[in-house]
Amino acid sequence: MSSPILVDTAVVLQALVAGDGQPLAKALLVSGRDLVAPDTLLVELAGLVGRKQAKGELSDDQAYAILDAVPNLVRFVGVSGSLVRRAYELSRQLGIMPVDGVFLATAESLGAPLVTSDLVLLAKVQGTVAAAHVAELGSL
Fold first, then answer.
1. Residue 77 near residue 106, CB atoms below 8 Å
2. Quick one: pLDDT at residue 20?
3. Residue 115 · residue 7 · CB < 8 Å
4. Alpha-carbon distance 112 to 105, whole Å?
5. Residue 2 confidence (pLDDT)
6. All residues at 6 or more sequence positions from 77 whose CB lies less than 8 Å from its CB, including other chains
7. pTM recorded for the entire structure
8. Contact assessment for residue 12 and residue 41, using Cβ atoms and an 8 Å cutoff
9. CA 39 to CA 59: how far, in whole Å?
10. Is the Cβ–Cβ distance between 130 and 124 less than 8 Å?
11. Helices marked H in 1-140
12. CB 98 within 8 A of CB 88
């Protein structure tokens, strides 16, 4: 099995919803690589899918299809107390959202790159030790 790659919610959503970045994100999700994410991705994804559905950008059927597809594409890891503590430290040190801290702390703990298309996160980790754990979608 290949080394794991951590994917964030933006990459998963891009892969499953037509729009900018979809070809790169979709190629990663169907690559057969060992894709992992903290289990909090499911909650964040449900919120984003719900917003898209409320705006009329997704039908109910499309929204449920996205939520049903993800567990078949990504292996989930549980979020522990020590991981949450590290996520909090990272969010304070880097000025990132705590949920992004969870993804980054998970990447650190697994020794896996966090693949993201989140330009804000990429900018905030640039030039820090955390940058070693983050890769822009399409760079792998």
1. yes
2. 67
3. yes
4. 10
5. 74
6. 36, 37, 38, 39, 106, 110
7. 0.92
8. yes
9. 24
10. no
11. 9-16, 22-29, 40-54, 60-73, 81-94, 98-110, 119-125
12. yes
Given this model, what pLDDT does residue 1 score?
A: 56
Q: How many residues are listed for the chain in this entry?
A: 140
> From CA 28, how far away is CA 67, in angstroms rounded?
18
Burial class (CB in 10 A: 0-12, 13-18, 19+), 72: exposed
What domains does the chain contain, in order, with CATH numbers? 5-136 (3.40.50.1010)
Residues in contact with 88: Cβ distance below 8 Å, sequence separation at least 6, in sequence order = 98, 101
Q: Give residue 101's identity as a one-letter amino acid code.
A: G
* Tokens 């304070």, residue located: 92
Nearest to 70 by CA among 47, 90, 45: 45
**What is the spatial distance between Cα 82 and Cα 109, in angstroms, rounded to a whole number?**
10
Read off the pLDDT of residues 61-91 as tens digits, 9 standing for 90 and up.
999 999 999 999 999 999 999 999 999 999 9
Q: List the one residue out of 106, 136, 140, 101 whose CA is nearest residue 21.
A: 136
The strands making up 75-77's β-sheet, listed across from edge to edge, are 75-77, 35-38, 5-7, 114-116, 134-136
